Amino acid sequence: MNVNKVVLVGRLTRDPELRTTQSGQNVTSISLATNNFWTDKSGQKQEKTEFHNVVLWGKTAEIAAQYLVKGQEAFFEGRLQTRAYTGKDGIERRVTEIIADTMQFGSKPSGNSGSGNYGSANRNNVGSANPSAANPASNEGEKIPTINIDDEQGEIQLNDIPF
Fold first, then answer.
1. Can you tell me the distance from the alpha carbon of 3 to that of 90, in angstroms, rounded to the nearest whole number?
2. d(CA 134, CA 117)
C-alpha cells in the first residue's frame, strides 16, 4: 500500500501569490510556517519552526489569493510532490511542495480587523465553502461567530456552537 498524504496547520509567512499558467489555469503559491514544541531531557522547553511551500490550483487558488493574508492561520490537506527546475545560474535544483486539495481558513493575524473562520474550500468540492461566509464584503457589519479553543476554560457545550 502507498500513501502520500499531508495535513498542515500553520501561519502564512507572506501573502499568497496568484499566477496564471500559459494554459490559463490559476495557481497560488503559499509559504506556511508550522511550529513543533517539546521539552528536552533537562526540562527546557524547545521550539522548532518548519517552513513549507504549498501550491493550490483552480478555484481554490483564486479563493486563497483573495482571502488569505500574511500571518493568518490556515489548514491544508494534500500530497507531497517533488519537481526539478533549472535556476537562473544554470544549476538544476529540486523542490518538494505540498499540492493542496483542501483548504480551511483560520484566525486572522491579531493586527487585522475581523477574525475567525471565513469558510473552507476544497478543490474537488468548492461548493462546500459557505458562500456568504467566504465573501466578507457581503457580511460587512456582521460578526462571524467563532470558538477559539485556546480561550475556552471548560468543556465546549453544544449550545455554544454557533451553527
1. 34
2. 9
CA gap 55, 28 in Å, rounded: 6
pLDDT, tens digit, 9 for 90 and up, residues 30-89? 999 999 999 999 999 999 999 999 999 999 999 999 999 999 999 999 999 999 999 999
First-to-final CA distance of the chain: 39
**Distance of alpha carbon 75 from alpha carbon 7, whole angstroms:** 7
Domain count, the chain: 1
Whole-prediction pTM: 0.66
Domain of 155 in residue numbering reads as 6-160
3 state DSSP class of 158: helix
94: in domain: yes
**CA–CA separation, 135 and 6 (whole Å):** 27
The helix/strand/coil state of 136 is helix
